[in-house]
Amino acid sequence: MVRKIQAxxxxxxxxxxxxxxxxxxxxxxxxxxxxxxxxxVDRAYLDWDRIADLSEDEVYHLVFPGRGEHxxxxxxxxxxxxxxxxxxxxxxxxxxxxxxVDEHALTGQPVMGYDRxxxxxxxxxxxxxITSRVGHKAGQTVEVDWSGPTMRLTDPHTGxxxxxxxxxxxxxxxRYGFVEPTLDMQQNTWLAAHVAMFDFFGGSVxxxxxxxxxTGVTQRPKEGEIVLNAAYRELAGHYSAGxxxxxxRSPKDKSSAENTVRHVATDVIAPLRxxxxxxxxxxxxxxxxxxxxxxxxxxxKRAGSxxxxxxxxxxxxxxxxxxxxxxxxxxxxxxRVARNGHITWAKNYYSxxxxxxxxxxxxxxxxxxxxxxxxSQRLGSHLRLPATVVHQYATHEADLPxxxxxxxxxQHRIRAWATRIGPSAETVIDRIxxxxxxxxxxxxxxxxxxxxxxxxxxxxxEAACALAPNSRVPSPRYAHLRPxxxxxxxxxxxxxxxxxxxxxxxxxxxxxxxxxxx
Length: 518
What we know:
By secondary structure, this protein is α+β, with helices and mostly antiparallel strands. It folds into 5 domains: 2-63; 79-128, no CATH class; 141-317, Nucleotidyltransferase, domain 5, CATH 3.30.420.10; 330-399, no CATH class; 411-502, no CATH class. It has helices at 7-15, 20-27, 31-44, 48-51, 56-63, 79-85, 93-104, 114-128, 187-201, 230-238, 255-269, 280-296, 306-314, 411-421, 423-435, 443-450, 452-456, 458-467, 478-487, 489-492, 510-514; strands at residues 141-146, 151-154, 161-171, 176-182, 207-209, 217-219, 227-228, 242-243, 330-336, 342-345, 348-351, 360-365, 369-374, 377-383, 393-394. The longest helix has 17 residues, at 280-296. The chain is elongated, with a radius of gyration of 45 Å. The termini are far apart.
C-alpha cells in the first residue's frame, strides 16, 4: 500500500542521484510505489530542500494529502466523559458500553462492539497522556506497609539515639501518600497509625491492602480462609473496610505502597538526614512538611500532581469518617470467672453475669472501658478503674443472682443482728456505739462481739452479755466476753471473779523482777 511508503527516504535518495531502479533494489520498495511518489512530488512542485527538515509523517501527508485518514462510521462517545465516569465506584467499561448502545439505539447510527469500544478507549488514554481507569478506582483501596529505611531520635541530654519506624500508606488511584513516624511496630502502634492515616485522608476506603505481618494477619494458610488479627479486624469494621492481605512474596499486590516506600527514602528521609530531632512530635512535623512537597510534585507522565488528583477526583469519593473516633483496644482471651462472679484485670475486679461463673470469657480493654465477651456475644462492660486503684470491685447489680445479695455493714444492720440474739446483746452493742465518737469506729468491735454467736451459739452469747454488766466495765467488748464463754461462766450464771474481767492484762509479781536470790 502507498501509505506504507517511506516517502521522505525515497525523495532523499532521489536527491542524491539514485534512480528508481536503484532505490527499489536497495530498500525493497516497489518500483510502482516509487514512481507514484515521484509523480506526486512533480505535480506538487516539491523539491528536497523544502521537505528536508520535515518528519516522515509530515512528508507523507504533504505528498499524499488526505490519504490514509480513517473516518469511523460508528457513533463516537464523549471519551472525556467516559474517562470521568469510569473513576466512580462500581462503574466499568462494560456498563458504559451498554449505556452507549442504549443511547444510540433510536438514532439508527451504527455502534461499536465492546471489544472495539475498549480498544478505542485505550487509544484515547494514550493520546491524551492520562492514566487508564481500568486498573484502579478512586476511593476504593489504600495500601499500607512499614518502610524498610528508618530514622533516628537523639536524646538531648545523653546523646543516645533511638530508632524510629515509618508507617507508609498510599491511595493507588491518585498516588497520594502518607507517612507516620513511630517508636515501635507493636499492635497498638499499628492501629494508631491507621487512625492517623484515615484522619489525614479525611475519609475511609472499603479495602485495606497490607502485608502478612502478625499485627494484621494471624494465619495465612495455603487453603481456606485468612485469619485476621482480632483488633485489626475490629478497626477495619469501624471504618467499614475489609482487609485484603497481599499474597506472600507478591509485592506487586501492593505495588503503590512499595513505590511510596522507595520515594519516602528519597523525598523524605534523605533531605532530613543532616537534621537532629529530639522528640517524635518534632520529627512528625518535619516529615509532614516534606510530605506536602512530595504530594505536590508534578507527575512526569500524567497531568497534575498527587495532591491535585486527590483533591479533585479521589477525595470526593472517600467514605465519610465515623461519627465516633476509633478507640484502640487490647484483647485478653480465656479469663476464668471466679466463684464470686468477677474477673480480674490489672489487680481490680469486674462483675460478670452470674450465669457465667467458672466459665472462660474474653476481655476487650480500652483506655476507658473493660468489655466482657463470650465468643461474639457481649456480656457487659464497665468503666475502667484508674491505674492508681487496686483490689477494688466494679459490680453491676444486674450481674448478681436473684435474692438478697451482699450489703455493706452499717449501724442499723448491726443493731438488727444484736436484736435477733437478745436484749442483753442489744444492750452491749448500744454501749459500744455510745462509747465511740463516730459510729463507724464501733463497727469492728460490735461485729467482733456478734461473731462470737457463730462459735458459741446465740443463747450462750446472750447469757454472757447479761453477765458482763455485773462487772465494773461500762462497755464490754470481745476481750471481756470471750473469757466468760470459754470458761463456761455463762452456763452457771455467776462470775467467779467479778473483778477479773476489769483487769487490763497479766501483772508480773515482785519475784519476776527480783531475779535469782540464791
